[in-house]
Design brief:
Helix content: under 10%
Largest sheet: 3 strands, antiparallel
Strand order of the largest sheet: 2-1-3
Order of helices and strands: EEE
Strand content: 15-25%
Structural class: mainly beta
Shape: elongated
Oligomer: single chain
Number of strands: 3
Protein backbone atom coordinates (compact mmCIF):
# COMPACT_ATOMS: atom_id res chain seq x y z
CA UNK A 1 0.00 0.00 0.00
CA UNK A 2 1.05 3.57 -0.64
CA UNK A 3 0.87 6.38 1.92
CA UNK A 4 -0.72 9.61 0.68
CA UNK A 5 -0.88 13.11 2.18
CA UNK A 6 -3.38 15.83 1.20
CA UNK A 7 -1.61 18.90 -0.19
CA UNK A 8 -4.23 21.21 1.36
CA UNK A 9 -4.91 19.98 4.89
CA UNK A 10 -2.22 17.37 5.57
CA UNK A 11 -4.61 14.43 6.02
CA UNK A 12 -2.80 11.10 5.51
CA UNK A 13 -4.13 7.73 4.41
CA UNK A 14 -2.88 4.40 3.15
CA UNK A 15 -4.42 3.18 -0.12
CA UNK A 16 -3.49 1.81 -3.55
CA UNK A 17 -4.65 5.08 -5.17
CA UNK A 18 -5.66 8.39 -3.60
CA UNK A 19 -9.33 9.46 -3.54
CA UNK A 20 -10.70 12.20 -5.80
CA UNK A 21 -11.85 14.20 -2.76
CA UNK A 22 -10.11 14.43 0.61
CA UNK A 23 -12.12 12.67 3.34
CA UNK A 24 -10.99 15.31 5.85
CA UNK A 25 -11.32 18.73 4.18
CA UNK A 26 -13.81 17.61 1.50
CA UNK A 27 -11.78 19.45 -1.18
CA UNK A 28 -10.57 18.19 -4.52
CA UNK A 29 -6.89 17.81 -3.59
CA UNK A 30 -3.68 16.65 -5.15
CA UNK A 31 -2.49 13.85 -2.90
CA UNK A 32 1.27 13.44 -2.63
CA UNK A 33 2.92 10.03 -2.20
CA UNK A 34 4.77 10.26 1.12
CA UNK A 35 5.77 6.61 1.38
CA UNK A 36 9.30 5.98 2.54
CA UNK A 37 11.53 4.48 -0.12
CA UNK A 38 14.90 5.11 1.54
CA UNK A 39 16.67 3.72 4.62
CA UNK A 40 16.60 7.24 6.15
CA UNK A 41 13.09 6.66 7.54
CA UNK A 42 14.27 4.09 10.07
CA UNK A 43 11.56 1.49 9.36
CA UNK A 44 8.63 3.93 9.21
CA UNK A 45 6.04 3.71 6.44
CA UNK A 46 6.03 7.45 5.73
CA UNK A 47 8.75 9.96 5.00
CA UNK A 48 8.24 12.93 7.36
CA UNK A 49 10.17 15.22 4.98
CA UNK A 50 7.47 14.92 2.30
CA UNK A 51 4.38 17.10 2.54
CA UNK A 52 5.59 19.41 5.29
CA UNK A 53 4.05 22.86 5.13
Amino acid sequence: MTNWICDKCGYTLEAETPPEECPSCKEKCSFVDNSCYTPDCEGKKTDPRIGKR
